[in-house]
Amino acid sequence: MTQQAAALQTYNNELVKCIEDLCSKREELNRQIKQEEEEKDRLQHDIRVLSEKLSRVNESLAQRIAARATFDRTIAETEAAYTKILESSQSLLSVLKQEAGNLSKATEPRRKEH
Predict the structure, then answer these.
(1) Which segments does the entry list as coiled coil (predicted)?
(2) pTM higher than 0.90
């Protein structure tokens, strides 16, 4: 029976060692899980922060694009009005020159014909 007892003791020692190895591997795995959960929490926080920032930037961008459209419209309207003013000025100048010419002719002393 001593051989059986020795064999049983050997199996028992191996079994205890296997259980200890499994426990050690489980602890290592648990440590890795905790690390990844912490990383996941950090990433989710970063995503929330970036999402909020993206939302603010999109809102600001929309306001700026609307303001730019207002500038574009105002510039186009002003340029159109300015072009009309230039055209009117040219017409007025032309009419004024023509009238001035007519007045000059009317006020010139008449030449005596011989």
Answers:
(1) 12-60
(2) no
